[in-house]
Amino acid sequence: MKAVSSNRWLRILGVAFVMYVFAHIDRANLAMAAPFVRAELGFTPAALGFATGLFFWGYIILQIPAGRLAAVWSPKKVLLAQMLAWSVISLSTALVHTQTQLGINRFALGLAEGGVLTCTLVLIRNWFTQAERARANALFLMSLPIGPLVANPVSGLILTHASWRWMFVIEAIPGILWMLVWVWAIADRPEEADWLDPQERAELVARLEAEKAKIAPATGHWLKTLWHPAVLMLALYNFLALMAEWGVGFWLPTVLKESGFSIGVVGLLAALPSLLGIVSMQAVAASSDRRRERKWHMIGATAVSGLALLILPFAGGSTVAMVACLTIGIAAFLGRFGPFWTLPSEVLPASVVGVGIGLINGAGNLGGTVGPWFFGAVKTHTGSFSLALTVAGVSLILSSLAAAPIRTRQAPPR
């Protein structure tokens, strides 16, 4: 037991992983409830997409402040406060009755979750070396495919036997309980971890300090980071990529349900991209760490995702082909995360990396405000998601092109 509790891969990444699974469930479970919310409250697809998009406006606000606070103070304490806030707000979704109330609820949830990813990436940077970081990021970000893998079948089961309001109540409780584990398990830096073997702690601190010394220190005000060329290109890339990903991800259960499947089967089918995504994330991250190359691994996975969506119109109306294309598209997109979130830590000093990650993540989630709304608007006006899926494929290809000019310092393979 002591060996498990003193293993930083299990203790830091494992506890952060579960925390982010709960965050993702509380953020994305509205997608499973969408058909029932629309039926009970009388929302159009465009109205529901707009209310959902307000999540991202709240999410954007705290990206840079939370990232800065985590970098210079304590990612552990910032994340603890956010965990409490988002769990309570997600539970309160059960009380909404109007589009305005849902919009306010989604905005508040976004505000509470804003900076969670940014702060956790700062925490990972504090604990893992460059040679480990893509795998560490990918292991943590496996919470993104595992979130739906857990949430969609569970939500489908709850919705089969209870109302969508009870779904929000039941799925918010684990996040509140996990705060106790977080307080016990997490330390901001290896220097503060008395549970870590003293020799391992000394060697790890020495390696991390040596890596910091190789990156030029920040000069001038920390806000100058917002104009760093690599940060701006990664921000544009993430905007275009997440505009597509959130549009596809949010409306996937609705697309499947409108194909004639029951809500229970929809929950299982919607989990398929997550299963393949787990494999994709680990394979791309392992290759990225082995070759110490980030940019082209990220671009390649994103381009495959875009191509899968672009060939969807040629599926000939086959439900099997449609599910296959959507599964491959989402899974390939998930593969980009390990190398993508390693890039900022390799081009920015430690004191400002949280600011850079905050801008990049904020820009991506600005794209997330557009995606669900655009898909809903297309569905409202055309009666189909076909055009929106094609636009999503184009957006992913454009995001790949936007990232191509980024200059990185490539280290030799180990």
* Helix count from the secondary structure assignment: 19
Distance N terminus to C terminus? 32 Å
Order of helices and strands: HHHHHHHHHHHHHHHHHHH
Strand elements, count: 0
Show unreliable segments: 410-414
Instruction: Give the class from helix and strand content and strand pairing.
Output: mainly alpha
Which radius of gyration do the C-alpha atoms yield? 21 Å
* Strand content range: under 5%
User: How many domains comprise the coordinates?
Assistant: 1
Helix content: over 70%
Sheet with the most strands?
Answer: none
CATH fold annotation: Growth Hormone, Chain: A
Assigned CATH superfamily: MFS general substrate transporter like domains
- Mean pLDDT, all residues: 83
- Top-tier CATH class: Mainly Alpha
Based on the coordinates given, report the CATH architecture.
Up-down Bundle
Shape: globular
Describe this structure as you would to a colleague.
Helix content is 80%, strand content 0%. With 414 residues, the protein is mostly helical. It has a single domain, classed as MFS general substrate transporter like domains (Growth Hormone, Chain: A, Up-down Bundle), CATH 1.20.1250.20. Helix 2 runs antiparallel to helix 10 and helix 5 packs antiparallel against helix 7.
Topology diagram in text:
Layout lengths: L1 H4 L2 H34 L3 H17 L1 H10 L2 H18 L6 H15 L2 H12 L2 H12 L1 H19 L2 H22 L12 H17 L14 H29 L5 H7 L2 H20 L3 H16 L8 H16 L2 H11 L2 H33 L3 H18 L11
Helix pairs in contact: 2-3, 2-5, 2-7, 2-8, 2-9, 2-10, 2-12, 3-6, 3-18, 4-5, 4-7, 4-18, 5-6, 5-7, 5-10, 7-18, 8-14, 8-17, 9-10, 9-13, 9-14, 12-13, 12-16, 12-18, 12-19, 14-16, 15-16, 15-19, 18-19
